[in-house]
Structures are given as structure tokens and as C-alpha cells.
Structure to design on (242 residues):
């Protein structure tokens, strides 16, 4: 089946969204441009868009195999996929498994310290106040999601975290933290957006090498290394590691 892109209705830093002939389906196309932290310079790592698309598609399929619903439908080509059109919940959900960066400093924890229990944080999406952190009471009071929807979000976050942690550790990587977004599709809450090197913080389980794009925004060589290495690990088959 051939999917025809129609009107572009959204363009962000990493993706372009297009309408299709089916109002319930959209094409999500990943971009190659990499914008520096200060927004002043763009670089083009080799096939950044293709890697983000392929990694996302693989991880979405993997989550679906564990009955964690996502918006993913099919991979259309190297850099784009067909997804369900969601009514996006205006929040971002951050899951932390280990302490690092500003989080570790804020709470007086050692860098790399394993948390006794994963910490789930909620942030306002596209907020003028630098993505302010909120709790579930804020979200319900602001009408962003219902209490019942947040219970579903929590359940899927917990399961997705367990599934992805195990997935990466079998490939020699620790999932330090990652971000998820959610939306409504036919009155059901599902995972949306992407799962890529850009919203997952990964460390090598043996050497501790950090595959964190934020640390290397101005280093094209390291950016390319992170993308290609994460893709290589994601597509390793079970039992292949030495």
C-alpha cells in the first residue's frame, strides 16, 4: 500500500509531520539537521534522520510485542514512518533509573548512583517557563489529562522502563533516563513521539562511556559516533554479545 504525503502541518527541530488521505494517520519524517544548543549552527551527522527513524521503529515494535501500545503503524522508508494521529497530552514524562548531571547535584547524589526505585517526573510541554516540572495534581487541575489517564500513563511508563532497561542491558548498555510523550487515540492513551538517541541517555555497561548527545552538541565527530553506535547496539540480535 502506497501512502501519499499531503499537507505539512508541523515542523520541529527533529521531525516534520504530514497529513495523509486518512485523517487518523500521519507521516512522521525525521530530519537530518542537528541544531546546536544556542541555535546558531546546524550540522548534518550522517543519516541522523534515518537512524532516528529506524531506531524508533524497532523500539516501538519491541514495546508493542510486550503489549505496550504506541502510535507506530509501519516504517515507510529510510527516514519516515506512518503513525496514528494522536491528541497529544501537553506533558513530557521523564523516567530516571540512575542519578546524573544536574539531578545528581541537586539531591547530593553520586554521578551514576543507582536509584532504589525509578523516579518519574512530569514536565509541561512547549511551556514558556523552560518546561516547568509539575505533579499529577497540576496536570489534572490544568485539564491536561484526567486522573484515570494518568494511571494508565504510569502503568505504561513502568512497563516500558522495565522492557527497555532489559533490552539495552542485553546489548551492553545502561538506560540512565529517557523521555516519553503520550496522546489519545480513539479514547485510548498510547505512547507517541519518538524513541531515539535524542531522548534516551545511555552508558556503556562495562566502560561507563556516555552516549549523551547533550554533552557533544558542538562536536560533530562524537555526535556521529553516538548515533551510529546506538543504532548498532539496538539492532544486535539476542545472544550476539561476546
Amino acid at each position: 500500500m502506497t501512502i501519499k504525503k499531503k499537507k505539512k502541518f508541523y515542523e520541529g527541530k527533529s521531525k516534520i509531520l504530514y497529513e495523509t488521505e486518512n485523517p487518523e494517520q500521519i507521516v512522521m519524517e525525521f530530519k537530518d539537521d542537528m541544531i546546536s544548543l544556542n541555535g546558531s549552527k546546524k550540522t548534518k551527522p550522517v543519516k541522523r534522520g534515518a537512524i532516528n527513524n529506524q531506531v524508533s521503529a524497532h523500539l516501538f515494535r519491541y514495546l508493542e510485542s510486550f503489549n505496550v501500545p504506541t502510535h507506530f503503524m509501519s516504517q515507510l522508508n529510510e527516514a519516515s514512518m506512518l503513525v496514528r494521529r494522536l491528541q497529544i497530552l501537553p506533558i513530557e514524562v521523564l523516567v530516571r533509573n540512575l542519578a546524573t548531571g544536574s539531578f545528581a547535584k541537586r539531591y547530593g547524589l553520586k554521578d551514576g548512583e543507582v536509584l532504589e526505585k525509578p523516579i518519574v517526573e512530569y514536565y509541561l510541554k512547549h511551556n514558556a517557563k523552560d518546561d516547568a516540572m509539575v505533579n499529577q495534581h497540576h496536570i489534572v487541575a490544568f485539564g491536561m489529562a484526567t486522573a484515570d489517564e494518568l494511571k494508565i500513563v504510569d502503568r505504561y511508563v513502568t512497563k516500558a522502563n522495565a522492557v527497555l532497561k532489559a533490552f539495552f542491558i542485553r546489548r551492553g548498555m545502561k538506560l540512565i533516563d529517557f523521555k516519553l510523550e503520550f496522546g489519545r487515540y480513539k479514547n485510548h492513551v498510547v505512547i507517541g513521539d519518538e524513541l531515539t538517541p535524542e531522548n534516551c541517555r545511555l552508558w556503556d555497561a562495562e566502560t561507563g562511556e556516555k552516549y549523551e548527545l547533550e554533552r557533544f552538541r558542538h562536536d560533530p565527530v562524537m555526535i556521529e559516533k553516538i548515533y551510529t553506535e546506538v543504532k548498532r547496539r539496538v539492532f544486535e540480535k539476542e545472544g550476539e554479545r561476546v
Summary: Residues 37 and 217 are 6 Å apart (CA to CA). The radius of gyration is 18 Å. The first strand starts at residue 8 and ends at 11. The chain has two domains: 8-84, 87-218.
